[in-house]
Amino acid sequence: KAGVTQTPRYLIKTRGQQVTLSCSPISGHRSVSWYQQTPGQGLQFLFEYFSETQRNKGNFPGRFSGRQFSNSRSEMNVSTLELGDSALYLCASSYQGSDHTEAFFGQGTRLTVV
Amino acid sequence: QQQVKQSPQSLIVQKGGISIINCAYENTAFDYFPWYQQFPGKGPALLIAIRPDVSEKKEGRFTISFNKSAKQFSLHIMDSQPGDSATYFCAGSGSARQLTFGSGTQLTVLP
Description:
By secondary structure, chain A is mainly β. In chain A, 0% of the residues lie in helices and 53% in strands.
């Protein structure tokens, strides 16, 4: 079974630009969550999507948004990039029925804002 | 009330020794406690997880000990190997299903 695939792996953007990151979950997984990882703040939850609906959202500004498609693939978008948005963005997929199930992470997209 | 506090920040252990990482949580609604292992350039990988209805869970060299009354849990790595050198994260999750992570422990196992 293929793992969680995130594209691109690396990205360099200029302050003020916007960026879209993509995540393909494990086949059969319906839940996709996004996390931001930085040396200072650690791993922080951004949002979770299940069956194309955002079920939960972390404490991030509205510049961070996401969506999920009918095939469970997900994208996250960051508009008006700031230097502080430089981070490793991780996507995790899980089957997510009514109970907790294992969350599998992708390798992440390393975003650098200059 | 969502925090998970993890210690130590870094840990150096000799090969064959026991590595112990501790976490404490505040949110009593958490009902799922996983541990993740992360190597440089990789995403976190689930190592082992526990629910609060058991006090201990063992998988190979990895054991989680859970103390519900103290709201603490720990990871024990027996017979630590150089290949275990990585960053370890504890986490808690409740009905919202989002993972609240600890700050991470960088483990170095000396050969």
